[in-house]
Design goal:
With 155 residues, this protein is α/β, with parallel strands linked by helices. Helices cover 28% and strands 21% of the residues. Strand 4, helix 3 and strand 5 (105-110) form a beta-alpha-beta unit.
Length: 155
C-alpha cells in the first residue's frame, strides 16, 4: 500500500502539517468507521450522493475555520461511466472541484488515478490505486508527515 500512494503535487507543503478536518466523499459505512477511528482527533464530515449546493455552501463556511482540510474520495467504480466520474455524482465532482482549488486542501483519490484529470487546478493531491484499510493507513501516514510517498504515476 505504501508504494501505491503517489503525491502528485503539494503546492503549500500540506504533508508537513496535520489536517484539522477530514472530508470523506462517497465512503461506505465500513470505510467511515475505519476513518473515524484513524482520524478521531479531528472533525469528520461525510459527503454522499445526496449532497447538494446548500450543503456545499455550509461546508465551505466550515472549512474557512480550518487550517488544513483533507478531502478523500472513496468507493470509486473501476469503470469511468458515461461522464467519466467513476461512480460519483455530478454534485460530488463539483464539490471536489470547488474544494480542490482551496490553498489549504489536500485531495486524495482512492482507487483510480484517472479521476485526477477532472481536477487540473488542485493545489495539493495524492492518488492511490486501492481503497482499503492498508491504503487508508498509508494516506494517514503521508498526510500527517510520518511517511514520504513512494508511488510513481505511470499514467
Amino acid at each position: 500500500a505504501d508504494k501505491a500512494a503517489t503525491l502528485i503535487k503539494d503546492e503549500n507543503n500540506l504533508t508537513k502539517q496535520t489536517p484539522t478536518i477530514y472530508v470523506a466523499i462517497n465512503a461506505n459505512k465500513e470505510s467511515i468507521n475505519t476513518l473515524k477511528t484513524m482520524w478521531k482527533h479531528i472533525k469528520f464530515v461525510n459527503i454522499d450522493s445526496t449532497f447538494n449546493d446548500d450543503q456545499l455552501k455550509e461546508l465551505s463556511n466550515i472549512l474557512v475555520k480550518h487550517k488544513y482540510a483533507l478531502v478523500s474520495v472513496h468507493n470509486l467504480s473501476r469503470y469511468p461511466g458515461p461522464q467519466g466520474y467513476y461512480g460519483l455524482s455530478p454534485m460530488q465532482i463539483k464539490t471536489i472541484k470547488t474544494l480542490s482549488t482551496r490553498r489549504n486542501t489536500m485531495i486524495t483519490i482512492m482507487g483510480t488515478p484517472y479521476l485526477k484529470s477532472h481536477f487540473p487546478d488542485a493545489k495539493s493531491m495524492i492518488v492511490a490505486y486501492e481503497d482499503n484499510i492498508y491504503t487508508q493507513k498509508a494516506i494517514h501516514n503521508i498526510t500527517t508527515n510520518r511517511f514520504t510517498p513512494l508511488g510513481k504515476l505511470p499514467i
